[in-house]
Task: structure prediction
Amino acid sequence: MSNLNEQHDTQHLVDDALKDEIKEPAKYHVLLLNDDYTPMDFVIEVLTRFFNMDSDKATDVMLTVHYKGKALCGTYSAEIAETKVDQVSRFAFEHQHPLKCVMEKA
Ligand code: TYC
Result:
């Protein structure tokens, strides 16, 4: 390959590396999904315990999930979002409820 082409390629690699350094870390939405079995009170408990909502806000979000199928609980870095999903999933499983909590790139 010509010297000029190699220089061009190297510049691209440098640019990409710099871009990664400058970029804000990606954010993730954490959502609750509706099902027919998890008690409403349990969902409110999840929202107050893991997403620091007061009971009015938690009731509002629970009803959004119930009527619309899903709702946003919070937006976090990848690591925090994974931890929330894990905590909620374990808590639901331990109480034998089918409640599902998922994350998606914001
Ligand atoms: N649909 C459930 C019921 O009628 C309540 C519910 C709300 C379940 C939110 C899950 O994420 C959920 N008991």
